[in-house]
């Protein structure tokens, strides 16, 4: 059973190799979809044996899967399946008229599977150093996805992304070194920096450990797009092609946050309470919510608007992490909801931008009339994004409010509600003319099957989880939330 | 042995101060390379009983930082046709003064840290100073290449810090980190090439298409 973990890492690599031998653009996209689906199949096989076989580990304990990482793996595969289905739709015209050369298409697909590989490594790594290596590798691999079309703006975005995130992640490594230094010199199992050992070890130097967490939080927080370290995010998200923006927002940010959760669990365990980490989570979460809310009001570019929504939602998830077990539960549920929703909204924004020839919101008018499928996708996903019932984000935000009231974190609650309120109004103001304004007649109203499948699938999932959360998933999330808390 | 160690640590300080005070980019690239080699030698000369793995790691670090990186960076320097860092945001003299101040504060700060013994404390201080130098280069310079150098110096500092707690860091991770840094420098080199092609300059403060 534990050989499964190695398979997760092997499949994308085989896909990357196989892409070298493919000479047709459409086949390349089918191949990467195939690889992602195979990965998903592995997870399904793994999950069907649950909960008996979790946690599992292999390769001398270097690879490790528990409820927390399995949950993130699930979210990741949702995002990658949707992205792989959508990519041929998005690139079809450019592939046909040669704007995307065959070499570029191959590079795109190899980098796509490469990012899948690095994120899988981040999730499966038991060693927190290896986790860091995987996370830094995601930056390096995905940077070139931003500039797959080498326009000046895209290259500028790629440069900022590469520099800011590399430097940010370097800080996280300082955190890891400090955590290593905080370990007792001779302790059982302290030699390897395995999370499984760190999260039960004792005798830490608490001062160093706290400093270590601060560095990790700022470092990985840069990659997760937490304000005020988020400055690379709107640029990279807005310049990347549609499926890549969706993957960035839908999962890469969460992968970085996942690393923070792991570190937080160690610190909580060592301190014996979650007070220290909670306070930091709440501060960073609230700052992200407030900063993004004030930027959302003034956006003109639809993809930048969505990028600031990512900052807001990552802030909400971080806030949830600071609100005890119920908050962690809400945060993890919100991770899934946000990823599904943001994938859909970036797909819609990408396609509408292509159809209207501009990502400026002033130029996109009457999308429901001009391009019904993507208009519906945009309206549905944006409404879900701002927390309208019965979509699932409403549920996770509601749970978050409940957690805040339980913990009597009234100031945090008020700021959160105010921020969400501002975002709600501002986003609607942007959305209404885009969806219902007087639209032009655009060519290409016909939609291909994969496009329809992606839109209906994602909207369906958002509605489903909004109306009903199956008991096995609730149990699963409760366990994952306990791991995030790190307390017995 | 102690004297060799002192020489290495002295060189480390010197490279940092040189970087803060000089404008010629080719010279800076070579200085960073020297710094990388010095840091690669520190674990060989000084610390714990040497294992084969540590030796290999040091060797890899020296080859990469002393040979491959400067070669890559000098290439992109030629492509971008820049020679000097003109008018940095923070002048060279001011940078140097900040550098001296940072050096003193690092030594004082490291002596208060609850890690290791006396000699460790000195290495930690200088690693800290190297990191601060890297960050200073990153925020004070205009050319894209200087930022790559700043990143490398920051990484050098972290590597130095890593030698103190090396017992806890498995080899696989150390090599993974080196690999990541290598790919990062490689990617940044390509990025400089692309910036130069699309913008006809590599001044990062003039990359202002994306705002808000």
Summed up, what is this model?
By secondary structure, chain A is mainly alpha-helical. Chain A has helices spanning 3-19, 25-48, 67-96, 102-124, 128-146, 152-182, 195-198, 206-224, 232-239, 242-271, 275-297, 302-321, 324-356, 367-370, 372-385, 392-406, 410-436, 449-467, 471-485; strands at 56-58, 63-65. In chain A, helix 1 (3-19) runs antiparallel to helix 2 (25-48) and helix 3 (67-96) runs antiparallel to helix 18.
Characterise the protein shown here:
The complex is a heterodimer of chains A (488) and B (212). Chain A has 19 helices and two strands. Chain A has a domain at 282-488. Chain A has 488 residues and is an all-alpha fold. Chain A is globular, with a radius of gyration of 21 Å. Chain A is 77% helix and 1% strand. A two-stranded antiparallel ribbon of chain A has the order 1-2. In chain A, a hairpin with a 4-residue loop joins strand 1 and strand 2 (63-65). Chain B has one domain (2-200). Helix content of chain B is 77%, strand content 0%. Chain B contains seven helices and no strands. In chain B, helix 3 packs parallel to helix 7 (171-199), helix 4 (92-112) runs antiparallel to helix 5 and helix 5 packs antiparallel against helix 6 (144-164). Chain B is globular and about 50 Å long. Chains A and B meet through helix 5, helix 6 and helix 9 of A and helix 5, helix 6 and helix 7 of B.
